[in-house]
# Entry
Amino acid sequence: MSSLQAETQSVYRHEAPATMRAVVLYKAEDEKLMSIADEDERLRAAIHVEHDVPVPKPGPGEVLVKVMAGAMNYNTLWALRRHPVSTFDRLGRFAKLDPDAVRHNLDYQIMGSDGAGVVVSVGDGVKNCQPGDNIVVFPVVFDHQSPQAIEDYLYDEKSRIWGYETNFGAFADYCLIRATQVLPKPKHLSWAEAAVLTGGNSTVYRMLVSPNGAQIKIGESVLVWGASGGIGSMAVQYALRAGATPVGIVSTEEKAELVRALGCTAVIVRPNAENNFVNADGTPNMRRLVRFRRDVLQANQGRAPDVVFEHPGRATFYASVLVAANRGRIVTCGSTTGYEHLYDNRYLWMYGKRIIGSHCASWNEAARANDLICRGVIMPELSSAFPLERFDDAVAMLNSDHVGKIAILCNASTADEGIEDMVLRNEIGERQFRIFRKKDA
# Structure
């Protein structure tokens, strides 16, 4: 152990207090919030930063973590809006499925599905970490005694996304996780940089690299929607590292410059308003679709993309199926513009294309993805960082046309705190860590 690591463990090892700061949702507000038609107003009304929330205690197989930084995800917006469902409905279902989850079913919820911090205490049976360890959190809660979940958490109905479908998430001074959520913090990253990675990085690894996803190959091309966003920017990196050619889609020239700085030379700039290929009456906008296919072929040296990295959903899915190459793969992890997708099935079955559903990652996939981070192969694209008390400002940015990933500083004071390995960081070059960084980060 280096002197810096020893000093870090000495500083952060302590007994947890009885109460803490946390961003909480209240079950009693569900009906009132759903009566607010304006979604932006509903977001603001749902945010509560409290200072006297009880600190949970770890039970068997659980770990209490001092949160140094958390990170925003789109499920943060879903939870605040109570859309598509209230997360309290999820907590209730979780409690019915798993006896250990009953205490998650409270009249309040602490959100946050990405985080990095220091282990404070562990429950009985925990052997993979100890107080003082610096970790990042794998955001899937699963039953480690379930044969289905051990193979892949998606096969087990008890599995849940931490801090969204469970309680005691990352937007607090302390969080509660299971031992099966522990992964080592990359030593060359700050707390904020490490916090924004685990969920998105695991998701992209599964979508593009894993046998459960598209399994991109050298020489292929990958069309990446939202290439300047959190998962989009990592998809660009994975394509490049695999020897594939990313074709990034962004909404502005400023975003295009960021994506080019990652090494993506094929970039299509399209205003967001033009990235809806379904008319109001539910019919496809064929003129826009044909023009888009022409632009993709032109950007990709006349070739259709072998893989389409999909997450916008309803607005773009028709186009994704249309432009994919014969025998191409459309891999999807979400539907931020709507869950009901429209596409012409003839373009799928007649050309041997495949649609692959993907959701986060297995623990093994997450560990492999995290190892790539630890070795400096994949980089964080942190754009902004806000202290916990300014959570509302972070939500406003997440709800805008932002780039990269947004961190929440819980116990960390700055976005640069927590770097342990400056040797590796200097070998990579500081510029690579700051491509997306804004002044307040």
Summary: The mean pLDDT is 94. Residues 286-299 form the longest helix (14 residues). Residues 217 and 321 are 20 Å apart (CA to CA). DSSP finds 16 helices and 18 strands in the chain.
